[in-house]
Amino acid sequence: MTGATIKRDLRTGRSLWADSVGLGVKARPLTEAVAVDVAIVGAGISGAFTAHELARDHSVAVLDRRPPLMGSTLASTAMLQWEIDLTLTALGERIGVEKARRAYLRSRAAVDDLKQIVVKEGIRCGLRPKQSLYLAGDTYGHRALETEAEARAALGLESRYLGPAELRETFGIERTGALVSDGSASADPARLAAGLLRRAGAKGAKLYSPVEVLEVVSDPEGVTLLTDAGHAVRAKQVIFCCGYEFPKGVPTPGAKVISSWAMASKPRQRCPAWLRDMLVWEGSDPYLYFRMGGDGRLIVGGEDEASPTAHADKARLKRKCETITEKLRRLLPEIEFEVDYAWAGAFGESATGLPQIGPVEGMDHVHAVMGFGGNGITYSVIASQIVGRAVRGEADPDGDLYLG
Predict the structure, then answer these.
(1) How many CA atoms lie within 13 A of 386 on its CB side?
(2) Pair 393, 347: CB distance under 8 Å
């Protein structure tokens, strides 16, 4: 029978990445008041990139109310793309053509920057260069993708349009068209974040967990964080890297938290040879996306739902897995697989598909990194660069794109 089977001992609700090797990061309780140059709230992928960026020339404290890496980073499927949820042409209609072009070029550069960091630091996270295959769907059909290919080509982005015949012949997929793009990648997000935090720690950054920030008090000289540990953290600058958990007092106009689902097959999954080097997603709402992991697992996700709490419903997780499986079966009917892991998590959306990165209105020396949009890890790189420059008193040339 073609399709998928669900194991009786399926690791329901547990992310694949939670069982990754090499996640050890040294954390300590907050047992006394601390004074640093920079305090980062959140020890996930955004906090890890930011700590890595700033620990080179600043004293850094990272605080998290959970153990490190245990937030939205574990919900990621780590498709490290430069393509944005909104196409270049659609984004141009939302924020203007010039800004949309800058956003796409910055995103493309960020993926290259990410690869360079991993290689330079020797982080073992299964990083692998990938192409992406963006299939025509009910939101963006073949005509929209043809127009998109032309817009990207004008910017020098490595995308080309495939008609239905070439798509069928090359990939065995029946759709009206697709875009093939170079320059993306995949990785294990937990191992990536752990590696970055360890490198930051080697440069002097301290990680405190579990510590919850209860109140933020800013003044002209800096910021005081009052915590549930009974000890304060004093910093010249504070950066909130809370993923999709909106900090109190941080305005997020047009943003919302939704729920998303994912699953992974057993290792050494049989699949078409081309899929090992490809990230696949579609121009539909909700959309399906999938890729192969380094151990030969098929990782599939989608079925986003406009609810901030639906991801916590265990019964819904099983139903979503069945729906995702059926969608994949219709697209690639020759694939048979056994589901090993299934999980869900919160996910952020904004009106533009771009994250919110910048100073918090009404609070001196406080910055927020809000991970809206599908390519959150790519945005984490951008956020670390923008906030890093702000802490150093410099302006980022693209900072205005991400002010919300």
Answers:
(1) 28
(2) no
